[in-house]
Amino acid sequence: MRLILLGPPGAGKGTQAQRLVEEYGIPQLSTGDMLRAAVQAGTEVGKRAKAVMDAGELVSDAIVNAIVAERIDQSDCAKGFILDGYPRTLVQADAVEAMLAERGIALDTVIELVVDDKALVGRIVKRAEDAKAAGQPVRKDDNPEVFEERLREYYKKTAPLTGYYYAKGKLKTVDGMASIDAVTAEIGKVLAAAAK
Ligand code: AMP
Q1: What is the largest CA-CA distance in the chain?
Q2: Whose C-alpha lies nearest to ligand 1, atom 10?
Q3: Ligand 1 within 6 A of 150 CB?
Q4: Is 88 known to be catalytic?
Q5: pLDDT for the residue numbered 41
Q6: pLDDT confidence of residue 190
Q7: Is 56 in the pocket of ligand 1 (CB under 6 A)?
Q8: Residue 127 annotated in active site
């Protein structure tokens, strides 16, 4: 199964992706996680991405497309994968199409998690508080100021992807305001219907 989870920052993509990893035994490919790992490791990509990420802006299409293209060729992706936080621009969406076509594989479904803006900032603040309480590092971009910019970037560059996938007949929407378990159940239904 090859799936894209679409939705604004704080919509619950990462949480739901982790549950899908357990359920379907396919990996979660989070470009945010991969970029944070690159920043942490001090790689060339990490050095170029750090300031952009800290400002809540999007890293260049060329960088993220290259990271994903390399990642999907790894053996654990053979049976499928969940793209979380990627694609985020129309250029990236076209790149996904090309990447999959080159490999003779197709996308199954795109699930958009729909969440009110007002709820999002609260979730981000809570994520930062939870990380702190658990003694984990707090993301530099999980604060209300940077979050505003992340949301602006989302509406400007990522939201148009819903139309892109709708036109391809791939888009399914799920109410991301429901409880975590209810969202998981709804995603399960969408995936079961897509498998028929
Ligand atoms: P995330 O963990 O998905 O919220 O991503 C954190 C940050 O990483 C974003 O605000 C961007 O700066 C960067 N990033 C993650 N995925 C992408 C992507 N697909 N395209 C561009 N930038 C990205």
Answers
A1: 45
A2: 56
A3: yes
A4: yes
A5: 97
A6: 95
A7: yes
A8: yes
Q: Which residues of the chain have pLDDT under 70?
A: none
Nearest to 112, CA basis, from 91, 71, 140, 84:
84
| Residue 105: per-residue pLDDT | 94
Sign of the alpha-carbon dihedral angle for 151, 152, 153, 154: positive
Q: Is 97 helix (H, G, I), strand (E, B) or coil?
A: helix
Q: What does the angle CA 101 – CA 102 – CA 103 come to, to the nearest 5 degrees?
A: 90
Q: Is 106 helix (H, G, I), strand (E, B) or coil?
A: coil
In the numeric block, which tokens belong to residue 121? Answer: 């900032």
According to the model, what pLDDT value does residue 135 have?
Answer: 95
Amino acid at 168: K
- What is the pLDDT, as a whole number, of residue 194? 85
Can you give the length of the chain in residues? 196
Q: What local confidence, expressed as pLDDT, does residue 139 receive?
A: 86
CA 180 – ligand 1 centroid, Å: 22
- CA dihedral (164, 169, 170, 172) positive or negative: positive
**CA 11 to ligand 1 centroid distance, Å:** 14
Catalytic residue among 13, 19, 50, 157: 13
Contact 50 CB / ligand 1 (< 6 Å):
no
The DSSP call for residue 137 is P
